[in-house]
Amino acid sequence: MRVYRVTGAAGFVCALLLVINSARRAGFLPETALTHAIAPFAALTGLLAITGIYLHIRGTAGSLGLVGYVLNSAGLAGAFAIEYILHFVFPYLGGGTVSALLAGGTGRAFLVTSVVLVMGVLTFGVAAIRSGAMPVVAVSLYAVGMIPGSLRNLMPLPVYLGGLVLAAIGVAWMAARLWSAQEEPVAPARSVRREVRPTA
Length: 200
Known about the structure:
globular, mainly alpha
C-alpha cells in the first residue's frame, strides 16, 4: 500500500501543478519566482504517478502496458528537462541565442520528446483501459488532455492550456484510485515439513 500511496500523492501534486501552470500561463496567477520554480515538477511528479499506475495495472496490461509505460516515462522525463531549460536556462540567454538553439538541434530534440510523449500517452492509455484496473473516463481525460499538452509549440495557447487542465483531472482521478488501492499481499513462504518415516 505504501508504494500506491506515495505515487498516488505524487499524482495529486502533479494535477495541482498542472492547474497552477495553466492558470499562470492564462494570466490568472502572477508570474513570480515561485510559480516558475515549481513549474517543471509537474512532469517529474507525473512520472512518479505513471509508475504507480503501471505497477497497479501491469498484471493485466501485458506487453502493451510495458511499452506504453516506457514511452510515457521517457516522454515525461524529457518534458521535465525541457521545462527546466525553459524556466532556468533560456531566461538567462539572449533572444538571438534562444532562437538559434530552437532552430537547430535543441528544437529538434524538443520535438522528438513531444512525439515520444504523445506516443507513450496513447499507448499507455489504451493499455490502461484494456486492463480494466483504472477508470476509463480518467484515463481518457489524461490521454486526450496530454495530446495538446505535449505539443505546446504546435497548439493555440487556449487548446494547450485546456489540455493541461483535462490531463490534471484525469491524473487526479487515477491518483485517487491508486490511493485507495491495496497491494497484493505477498504469499507466505511455505514451511518445509520433514517427513518422518517409521523405522523398521
